[in-house]
User: What shape does this take?
Amino acid sequence: MSGAGGAASGADARFMALALAMGRRALGAAWPNPAVGCVLVSPDRRILGRGATAPGGRPHAETQALAAAGAAARGATAYVTLEPCAHHGQTPPCAEALARAGVARVVVAAPDPDPRVNGRGVALLRAAGVAVTEECRRAEAEADLAGFLMRARHGRPRVTLKLAASLDGRIATATGESRWITGPEARRRVHLMRAGHDAVMVGGGTARADDPALTIRGLGIERQPVRVVFSRRLDLPRGRLWESAKVAPVWLCHGPDAPEQSRARWEEAGARLLEVPAQGRQLSVTDAMAALGAAGLTSVLVEGGGALAASLLSAGLVDEIASFTAGLALGAEGTQSLGALGIDRLASAPRYALVEAVPVGADLLHRWRPVPRVPGEPPG
Assistant: This one.
């Protein structure tokens, strides 16, 4: 689809690739807003300005690119990875800003499903006399914006489940020793994954057993993700999360039966508490994810433990699995990577399609995504 701005050209695709690269820089930092990239190009194909959504979501990419270009933006083409916003919030709409700056043409990668935008940004531009070309590198943009799109359409963050296990699916020996099953290259890749997500999540059992920091280390990145822990009764140790809660955000999902004294202690330490309904002896993962989406998170990297991972898989809330496999075997007495799923037939097992398989040091990373089910087709 090209719209009134004509079909996208080869040059359009190249400049949009640059805008996409700009947007990727903001992944994990732009929430609750999308990580958008924008590039302004002159008629003779000189880059006049570029921008990406700033940490916290403002200023927007278009605003920064326009500021960099100044008066030279008049007559330019803007390449934007998501339809420019059309609603008045804390700042005027970007579509209006582009038109007011005299931009002659806007090339958009993906439409914005937010009901406050959803075609209105493009309509506002065209009404102002700006030519618009749509769907230039749309698939790539929607892959980059998958977390924002998940929250906009379904009210929850996109979930990536990270697993790191031996060849036989074990994450620790019988005595609980688990450091380190995978090598330094795989661990560095995990820190890079943390940097690209809004939040890192673990279950209470993992928090008690491993006392994890869940921070980004060794990459020169100062920003830290939100650290989320599922703990129905808030029976967590005063470890590294407690000590750093006022430095890097800690959010605790707990049940209605969490003691008031525990709530007060963690709030005093600097944590944010999110009460969600319980489902038996565990928290409702569906309600918890809805609460995290309502709080603004668009993407979550789940790093443990087995019971939380099994609950998310059973509820159909895992959008991607990133599985690191190490070249060792620990045997049946080792700790399994997943808790019970209650599956008694292969047809009931959730199916995933392989997206990528790549060596990472001495280990192997597999990335999997759910296989869509055909309506009316039996599970499996």
Residues 10-24 form the longest helix (15 residues). The chain has two domains: 3-145, 155-370.
